[in-house]
Automatic annotation (TrEMBL):
Native organism: Sphingomonas sanguinis
TM region positions: 5-25
Name recorded for this polypeptide: Sorbosone dehydrogenase family protein
Record keyword Transmembrane present: yes
Taxonomy, superkingdom: Bacteria
SUPFAM superfamilies in alphabetical order: Soluble quinoprotein glucose dehydrogenase
UniProt keyword annotations, A-Z: Membrane, Transmembrane, Transmembrane helix
Residue stretches making up the Pyrroloquinoline quinone-dependent pyranose dehydrogenase beta-propeller domain: 68-285, 328-437
């Protein structure tokens, strides 16, 4: 009898192991990234996962003078090195460059999901304390390298976006939009930041961005979702997964657009002045879904999160469902591919990188952690025209690549991208701890 019981237990254990192995088996992409990119991406049926595909590139940094690759006709060199997790960039009117050295605030491990997420962050090189600092970089002799690197503003709370507005520097901390007085040419600010509006912090998406509106009256602030698909309920997502419009003088705000899982990079289109953003879409629908995207955003838009993706495809995992919303969901303008982690965004205005890169948008793709094979880990260019939208049949063009080495390890990961006063492209690399400068080859 005891022998039979042991046999039954062994069978149950084997079945359990098999089930866990089946659930955890990584989902391999069946489409190329380009097939899920462009104006009309291929949208396959979802392959829902209980446990996500995990393919995290081990962070190793740049060894022995190694550097990224660039498109033909371009050159790249370090603009600044020795930084501490540089993620976002902003150029001041005198050409000084501010870099937010920052990371996620501490994440409590209250359950298995939190512990798994913290483990993944550690594997990706992201589970390090935030420097909570904005550093000033200045190239005084015009050689394309910063010869002044100095702490500009400290004591912040996971700062990210920065913008100069009406004589004050606004900083998007993870839990508040704050501001300090700014004097042109200053190399340090000691003033205590003043809170303008609170922002909801915590959760998976901690980075907040801020830019000024075209009319110079308001600010746009992006706030990502707390979870993948409102896993902890919709109340936890209130005033999140959205772009807010803020009136700084009155310290008032409203939701400008919603249903945006993690809108990070924002920029104004130079052709029509409209707001554009790049968005990280949802996980655990397989390696081919859902595409991250680049899109124009107008007041009142809703892009579907968490109930719908890519303009109306339902995510049946989300309960309760929301059928009335489907007909109002806006389809994004341009897909960037699945899981590329699009974060940085800047239009090509002012660049001197040749005609090929004169009209369009540069996008920093931080790189996937949950796709096999990996996607992203590059800076791409989306051509625009004619008019204020991406070229109808164009696919993203690689501008800066080679962040993954031959072993699949991460030498770097690009985040923020801006155009500097010389017409070059600056790229924040938060694994390599470098700001790279891309310029036309001589």
């Amino acid at each position: 009898m005891r022998k039979h019981v042991l046999i039954v237990i062994a069978i149950i254990v084997l079945i359990g192991i098999a089930v866990v192995a089946w659930l955890a088996w990584p989902d391999t992409a069946r489409l190329s990234v380009d097939q899920v990119a462009g104006k009309q991406p291929t949208i396959q049926a979802p392959r829902e996962q209980v446990i996500p595909t995990v393919d995290i590139a081990k962070p190793v940094g740049w060894a022995n003078g190694a550097k990224p690759s660039v498109a033909p006709g371009l050159a790249i060199q370090p603009f600044a090195t020795g930084l501490d997790h540089p993620r976002w960039l902003y150029e001041l009117p005198n050409g000084d460059v501010l870099v937010a050295e920052t990371n996620s605030p501490p994440r409590p491990s209250t359950g298995i999901v939190d512990r798994v997420m913290n483990f993944f962050l550690g594997r990706a090189g992201a589970a390090v304390p935030s420097a909570n600092r904005i550093t000033l970089l200045r190239d005084t002799n015009g050689d394309g390298k910063a010869d002044l690197k100095t702490p500009f503003l400290t004591g912040l709370n996971s700062p990210f976006g920065m913008v100069l507005f009406d004589g004050q520097l606004y900083i998007a901390d993870t839990d508040a939009l704050v501001r300090v007085p700014y004097t042109q040419g200053a190399t340090k600010i000691t003033a205590t930041p003043e809170k303008v509006v609170p922002l909801r912090g915590g959760g998976n998406h901690w980075a907040r961005n801020v830019i000024a509106s075209g009319d110079g009256q308001t600010l746009y602030v992006s706030v990502g979702s707390a979870s993948n698909i409102a896993d902890n309920g919709l109340d936890a997502e209130k005033n999140r997964a959205a772009i807010l419009q803020v009136w700084p003088k009155d310290k008032n705000w409203r939701i400008y657009a919603a249903g945006l899982r993690n809108p990070t990079g924002m920029a104004l289109n130079p052709v029509n002045g409209q707001l554009w953003t790049v968005v990280n879409e949802r996980d655990m629908l397989g390696s081919d879904l859902a595409p991250d995207y680049l899109t124009q955003v107008e007041f009142g838009d809703h892009f579907g999160w968490p109930w719908y993706y890519w303009g109306g495809y339902p995510d049946n995992r989300v309960q309760p469902d929301n059928p009335p919303l489907q007909q109002y969901v806006k389809r994004p303008d341009y897909a960037l591919g699945p899981h590329v982690a699009a974060l940085g965004l800047t239009f090509a205005t002012g660049t001197k990188l040749g005609d090929r890169f004169a009209n369009g948008a540069f996008i920093g793709e931080h790189g996937s952690w949950n796709r096999k094979p990996p996607s992203g880990y590059k800076v791409v260019f989306v051509p625009f025209g004619p008019g204020p939208f991406p070229t109808p049949k164009a696919k993203p063009i690689d501008v800066v690549s080679g962040f993954l080495n031959a072993k699949g390890e991460a030498q770097g990961r690009p985040v923020g991208v801006i155009v500097d006063k010389s017409g070059g492209l600056l790229v924040a690399d938060d694994v390599g701890n470098v700001v790279w400068k891309v310029s036309a080859a001589k």
